[in-house]
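DATA SHEET
Item: assembly model
Revision: 1
Owner: S.N.
Input lines:
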Amino acid sequence: MPGAPPQTHEEAQREFAETLSGFTAGDNPEYADYSRCIHCGLCLNACPTYRLWHNEADSPRGRIRQMALIDQGRMELGEGFVTHIDRCMDCRACETACPSGVEYGKLVERARAQIEKNYKRPRASRAIRNFVYRRLLVAPKRIARMARIVRFYQRSGLETIARGSGLLRLMGLQQRAALLPRIDREFFYSRLGRTFPAQGERRARVAFFAGCVAQVTFTALNDATIRVLQANGCEVVVPAEQSCCGALAAHAGVRDVARGLARENMEIFLREPFDAIITNAAGCGSTLKEYTDLFADDAGAGGTQTVRERERSAGLAAEFVPKMKDVTEFLVELGLSAPLREMKLRVTYQDSCHLLHGQKIREAPRKLIRAVPGVEFAEMPLADQCCGSAGVYNVTETKTSMELLAEKMRHAASTKASVIVTANPGCILQLRAGAKLHATNQEVLHVVELLDRATVHNS
Amino acid sequence: MVFERLNYSSTNMDRHLLSELERFLGKDAVLSRPEDLLLYEYDGSVEIARPQCIVFPRAAGDVVRIVGLANRYKTPIVGRGAGTGLSGGALAREGGIIVSFARMNQILEIDAENQRAVVQPGVVNSDLNAAAASAGLHFAPDPSSQKACTIGGNVSENAGGPHTLAYGVTTNHILGLEMVMPTGELVRIGGKAVDAPGYDLCGLFVGSEGTLALVTEITVRLTRLPEAVKTLLAIYDRVDGATETVVEITGRGITPAACEMLDGWTLRAVEAWVHAGFPLDSAAVLLIEVDGLREAVEQHAKEISEVCKTHGAREVRVARDAAERDLLWKGRKNAFGAVGRLSPTYYVQDGVIPRTKLPQTLKEIDRIGKENGFEIGNIFHAGDGNLHPIILFDARDPKQFERAVSTADAIIRFCIEMGGAITGEHGVGMEKDRLMPLLFTEADLALMRRVRDAFNPAGLLNPGKIFPTGKGCGEVRIRPMPQRGEGNSAPATGRDFA
Ligand SMILES: Cc1cc2nc3c(=O)[nH]c(=O)nc-3n(C[C@H](O)[C@H](O)[C@H](O)COP(=O)(O)OP(=O)(O)OC[C@H]3O[C@@H](n4cnc5c(N)ncnc54)[C@H](O)[C@@H]3O)c2cc1C
Ligand code: SF4
Ligand code: SF4
């Protein structure tokens, strides 16, 4: 044990003032936020990583405590901390479980920003992170080029060769390869800048947020979303020049890049008045709805932006955020007006973490599924637990991700549903891989894809 | 959080002991790096004590070997479930090994026909309930922490909950235990039958706060889910009306399944989070649940709402469906945490009084609070007289902070005067040991020590708990909390609430 702890408040205050926080100013986990945690432990069993390993260091309470310890100079920002924070899926199930209102998502993003600033990762990892977060995701052209290469690999027969030869297994890439999105024949880019008219009476005019990687892998989903919105009386504008939402960068702690993307998006989407801005990606949505936090008082102060810039952006964010809607949330608020045909299906729903825990939306997708006549809805056990996709988690922490996926598929199979519906492209990829790996023979769809199939389009 | 200098020196744990533990448990089942130890120095309480290592057994055999080694090296051992305890029970007050049961979390058997289950100690209370629900059964003890706390922890603390009123505390639902004694033997007590032959030892071990044995397997009684449930919310403009209602309901011989009271102040904190529709302008609400056979439930619900009205309830609402009911309960079960939203510096007391003394006690708590300049929120398991006054204070002011503790003590003393006790369900642990002499004579305590020494002769298992450690009664052991930076809007936390 170290020297005797201080006995009076003044003594403690003095000694504390002399210690150095392991965090640097700007984008740091703040006292006002982490001290909300009363270490009651009620979040433990909701946390997927705690449920796997049962180590306090990999629990929400333990992760918050580590932030507090570092801020108070009792622990160093070192490998141990980085490991436990890296392993966090940022699924935010702990936020839903927490009675004390701890905003864990905000804390962990800032912890990651601190790691970015103050911890030197191994060189290879740094190089990859730099490429992905600072170069690839910010530039649609690079994404498109990369996608064409992958598409060539997938369609030319090279993939079949790689699989058949056992090369992937040899390289330990077999499971990751199963997660690789199938690149679309036609990219979504051609829709940028277009306006899709409402069918029937116009009930709303909305902007569509198309996503970054989704534009080369989820063109069909994006098209389906636009169709469903049109059918329900929405005029859908797809503003050109829109950027990636910045979620992946923000989650990785690369907050300056996230801020840059946020600024671009806010300028573009606020250029015209829209009733709402719609996304079909829960992961993007939760970041888009939290743009305000990227420009909070302490964010990037003195570093990547001037005070004037920050204030201007904070103003834009205050205008932008209330308009941001997940497509399920928006459709439920608007009310479905397009007729639906009967579909004899048994359907289960997997909560997308960033819809449920990030945006606190639980009922909207379920209501939409139930709205389809003939559909038999079967709740799956632990639907609110992460499927293991978690942004890029399935790539960075593949083993953990696969363990969570295995459990998820067991629960999904137990519902005897033929379709698993979810609300986020990342979850769709992961669940499709799961259905294949575990041979559950279940189709995986986005809520709006199910609606699109059921909707009677009069075109 | 209590301040300490950055300390990366050795953990003082015997290297040989560590490597022996690692050898048979495997490296990933032993934690001993300083930064890991810092994460086991707390639990749900306000206390702090750092262990020297943490081990994760998978089976009873592992526990036997751990205890054997601890004896050989004369090192203290402390069991731990989820660490939600509110009295520091799971903390290594004198250092040593924490035995975390979190990975022993298998439900071994659910015997629906005979209404019992066999579980490992690390099974989470609500996981057991989810598994039993499909057979129409449940494990009745429902502490507010049930979504996280373990059955092992429930057994050790003899946990109760809102439904204790009708169903009893944990001890009423334990049929048998498999345990590793501090001396290393693996033993079984009780059995699968309700009344096992021989001494009834279960009652002795349940509630022993981890000081008599480490529990490695538990046979629990499962209770049939009631045919019908009705949850009522009675809203009052006067606190007295609510407390008088409680006295009268039980006086009439009706035993509701639960009867909880939240005062207006707490209610507003809770409503801000759950949006359960608690009226913000009321002085108190009673959350009353009746369950059982359909007809009896209807009858009791009617009678109860009449009693509520006679005592001035301005409105009695009945939850229409399971969703409304869950919402009301969600508000109640997360009340402490919700208070944490108002201020991270609050102190929850846990006292018991005979329920007939409820109106009087509430008035006294209010008086004590006013006298000391505190706002005190109240949450009660009103039906069985278990009170949880919550004292909000500003930890930046050291004077206030000390006064908060003495205020809490004054409340407890009043409970004892009323013929009550110093803890209803959170246990004594290392938080209330100093208060034990208020309730027990030296002879009473000596008898309890003899029981402990009979099973735990060397005092290796969970030392420094329950019994006063010789420090004067009423001494404040709590250390103040420092705060970084000026102009920080949040108050610094007082008793390790960071
Ligand atoms: C928000 C909140 C609300 C709460 N509400 C209630 C309530 O309504 N009613 C109530 O009774 N309690 C309540 N508690 C207190 C606490 O949750 C209970 O005491 C619970 O039973 C502790 O379980 P645990 O698994 O967290 O045990 P821990 O806190 O880990 O341990 C508690 C004690 O049990 C011992 N122990 C644990 N496992 C074993 C084992 N296998 N063998 C031997 N000893 C063991 C430990 O040594 C320790 O002494 C609440 C706590 C919180 C934070
Ligand atoms: S539930 Fe909230 S307050 Fe409790 S330990 Fe978890 S984060 Fe902290
Ligand atoms: S975000 Fe998810 S993985 Fe991370 S601590 Fe919270 S519950 Fe655990």
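QC remark: DSSP finds 26 helices and nine strands in chain A.
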